[in-house]
């Protein structure tokens, strides 16, 4: 079933701690170079596996992940943009 919310990763807030990656029960997130000053940031690579549970967003103390109800837009962004591109063109 299609989730009602999906993660929207705010690359510029991320500090690369990887807590969100480890908090995902579906192992949907991976770290990539692409943040400011070359830090690694998370991205949802297995978008179709994401159940929209929000644990990744809840785990981030930096506000680096927000859950959005615009699931089609979020899905397209996750599938078509690399984090480095998302940083330049949020
Ligand atoms: S989004 Fe948040 S929890 Fe995930 S790596 Fe970045 S700072 Fe850490
Ligand atoms: S919403 Fe849940 S399933 Fe989706 S990436 Fe975040 S922790 Fe993983």
Question: What's the layout of helices and strands?
Answer:
Blueprint: E1 6-9, H1 19-23, E2 29-33, E3 40-44, H2 55-59, E4 65-68, H3 71-80, H4 83-88
Antiparallel strand pairs: 1-4, 2-3
The chain binds iron/sulfur cluster (2 copies).
One iron/sulfur cluster binds at residues 7, 23-24, 26, 28-29, 44, 50-56.
Discrete helix count = 4
Strand content: 15-25%
What's the overall geometry? globular
- Determine and state the CATH class: Alpha Beta
Question: How many distinct beta strands?
Answer: 4
Under the CATH scheme, the architecture is 2-Layer Sandwich
The description of the largest β-sheet is: 2 strands, antiparallel
Provide the helix percentage. 25-40%
Number of discrete domains: 1
> Which stretches of 5+ consecutive residues score pLDDT under 50?
none
The first-to-last residue Cα distance is 27 Å
Word description of this protein:
This protein is an alpha+beta fold. It is built from four helices and four strands; from the N terminus they run βαββαβαα. The chain has helices at 19-23, 55-59, 71-80, 83-88; strands spanning 6-9, 29-33, 40-44, 65-68. A hairpin with a 6-residue loop joins β2 and β3 (40-44). One iron/sulfur cluster is lined by residues 14-20, 41-42, 59-60, 62, 64-65.
Q: Would you summarize the structure shown here?
A:
By secondary structure, the chain is of the alpha+beta class. It has helices spanning 19-23, 55-59, 71-80, 83-88, and strands at 6-9, 29-33, 40-44, 65-68. It contains 4 helices and 4 strands.
